[in-house]
Amino acid sequence: MFSTKIAGIGSYLPEKVVTNQDLEKVMDTNDEWIQERTGIRERRYGKKHEETTTTMGARAAEMAIERAGIKKEEVDFIIFATLSPDYYFPGCGVLVQRELGITTGEAGALDIRNQCSGFVYGLSIADQFVKTGMYKNVLLIGAEMHSMGLDFSTRGRNVTVLFGDGAGAVVLQPTTEPGKGILTTHLHSDGTFAEKLAFINPGSHGGYHMGRMDEPMDFGYSDAEYGDIFVNQHMLDNGQLFPNMDGPLVFKMAVQKFPEVIMEALQKTGLTPADIDMFVPHQANLRISSFVQKKLGLADHQVWNNIQKYGNTTAATIPIALAEALEAGAVKDGDLVCLAAFGSGFTWGSALIRW
Ligand code: UT7
Prior knowledge:
Layout: E1 3-12, E2 16-19, H1 20-24, H2 31-38, E3 42-45, H3 53-68, E4 77-81, H4 92-100, E5 108-112, H5 118-131, E6 138-144, H6 157-160, E7 166-175, E8 181-189, E9 197-198, H7 233-237, E10 244-245, H8 247-268, E11 278-281, H9 286-296, H10 307-310, H11 317-327, E12 336-343, E13 347-354
Parallel strand pairs: 4-5, 4-6, 11-12
Antiparallel strand pairs: 1-7, 2-3, 6-7, 8-13, 9-10, 12-13
Oxa(dethia)-CoA is lined by residues 29, 33-34, 37-38, 116, 157-158, 161, 197, 247-248, 250-251, 254, 284-285, 288, 312, 343.
């Protein structure tokens, strides 16, 4: 029986730095508010017309593949996690395959829509394929190009200031080294609050879930049976083609679910918070990460935070942060690494990896 190890990891952050002061120029917000409430100082934005979720994912993937010491043709399965895909369909999995130049048709590609916990979900899926011996090299990518889909008016400030662009990737391989690799993964979801952190248009809902929204909204549907549901001029004119979030509710749920799902993983493996050497949380808010750190009794050097520099890159935060921690020598052979995420859906999850 195999375990699954991370054989190579890569990340990509676009060059353009957007500071809180830059955002102050386009909407009613301020550096003090953003830093105090979230910890974020700046984030990166991709280059319009040149970079996409797929291209950023491909750059991170190339690094992960090289570090894993394999040829790209040896990748036998791709999992792509994103909430900001290049196209509504097909997904970024096949686009990244093309971008990487591996179009032999050998490897399958799967796109997953699990938002902030996309990377942890992807890791768990990959783990099932690798430990059963089905695949030898699974490429898992988390990438986001948020900047192209945010509301830069004051109306969108509670969401827009949080998010940034970037990508991270890992290559997962089987290992027979005793006790090493992914020890356990835990996935959860509850759709009760699906609309509380969501990007609902364009979509096929046609207003069906209206009762779930805080107040009924006019999406500009006409009496015609077909044609104006997915997207229409009214949506464009009224700023209805952007993400929305009930921040305080998400915050409240996050600080509850993070510790819960981490403890679940520790209990499953007979470990305790004292055994964790490095905790890499999904980077949603520095206050959330600090809360969880305290709850677990971890010292500052045992938690990797980089939201200050990159904001929330959703499915990409964990692999970007893990890559950074490894490059800094903060994760050593034999260390216990804990990953955890919570976000839209709501979906949440955790993983424990013995390095
Ligand atoms: O990774 C995905 C998961 N997402 C999260 O985990 C996010 C969780 N939630 C949060 O991190 C926090 O709720 C936020 C950082 C989003 C917001 O912080 P908050 O302390 O919960 O603020 P709030 O939403 O309760 O808003 C407080 C005030 C409001 O003004 P009033 O009504 O008190 O006058 C907002 O309109 O802050 C205002 N506000 C802003 N002011 C300046 C909201 N956004 C901004 C802004 N700049 N960008």
